[in-house]
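User: Before I run my own analysis I want an independent prediction to cross-check against. Here's the chain; please return only the structure tokens and, at the end, one sentence I can use as a sanity check.
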Amino acid sequence: MAIIPKIFNVELQTGSKNRYVVLLLVLAGVLMAVVDGSVVSIALPTITGYFGVNIGESQMIMTAYLVTLTSLLLIFGKVAERVGKSRLFMLGIVVFTISSFACGMSASLYQLVLCRIAQAAGAAMMFSISSAIIFQSFPRGEQGRAMGYIGATVAIGSIMGPTLGGVIVEYLGWEYIFLINVPIGVIQFLLSSRYLKIEENRSVSLDADWIGATTLIAFIVSLMALLGLLANSFTFQPTVAALALIFLASLVAFIITESRHKTPILDLSIFRYRMFVLPSISMIIFFVSNLMISVLGPFYFEGVMGYTATQVGLIYLIVPAIMVVGSPVTGWIYDKHQFRFLAALGMLIMAVSMMLLGYLAQNIDGDPRLLLATFVLSGIGAVFFQSPNNTEIMRALPKSKINTASSFTATIRNLGMALGVSFSGVLVSMQLASAGYHGTLGQAGPVLLSMTISRVMILAGMLCIIGTVVSVYRATTSAQF
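Assistant: Structure tokens:
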């Protein structure tokens, strides 16, 4: 039977006196972490030429960051119980800032990759407990709006990353996409040391399950490597089999060690809270389906519709632009009216938009106005879904587990994005192979491109239908408590 607290222990009656300063400081850290996850993509060709390496080698700059960040989120969520959320966040600022300077000074590709790993560790320290700090700093009546600001910040970061990266690389050089973090980090640390103070009870010792932490890292690294191989080529290879075995073995080992350890990295008892599990499932579906559209959409608009990269970039600004404006507003509405079905409505709108986009993409001469309208619908759906869903995840667990809730949601957010990228690649590879085509996706003809991509888009919409059902069930069940 699911354990549902009738009164959420995470509720604070008055909130922190400096909560808006705390909000700005934490969001600044989140923004830096998000921007640095995407800004490198624009500089990748320049970095590749600078070090004289191939694209496969230079992609490690991005892969190392993403894998390290995802692997360490749960671990640092546990460390925060002993160190304290404020101290861990400020330590993250220091590590991120110093490693950013080291990235800009790197003399070789492999030195840059090592510095990116350290940078991702600093980002994980900040990201893992950012939701917990913000959530704890605000009273219950303002928590939805505060969580909405996180969604808006992530959206701003996704806009700023490629745009800022292009400008910096063109006028200053690739080194400055990292060096720009240094003055920002110094200012943020000085302000955080004065204002980032929240009440918290730290554990006496850090008696964590380090064997479980090792198996967690092995599980995430092998999973992401496996999905990357399948996305590139949907064929059986010995490496694929080996990674699959490592993934399954490390997953089983992680579950066994966590269930037996007194202080696990991931407290498996959180999965007994139905009101935590259901919105978490919805969140994974949200990011998987969104990334499927984000990855394949540009191939359709450029390869079928004949749009330029700049035009496609402007189209993909629609959703984050709507989220920047709408997420805090939706959070405020949710705080005031507690409309339980708002997240389900958002997921349903996204399902309609993605299935409509898939239907329109079947034609090589789709109506641009209708195509743009689907992105507007998707943005509205994302705004309705994210703030209420994120708020319910944080409210579902007792206060003692708020660090776990924060780090877990950050982990499944990254995993959901990785799964979305990989699933889109796997589904496209399967369809192209069944059609007898073995070239690259970019060189496929407009007809084959449109049919292949449209099916994946429709499938993404169907996933959102499942997410809608889960969200409706969550809303219906919550009404009983």
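Sanity check: The radius of gyration is 22 Å.
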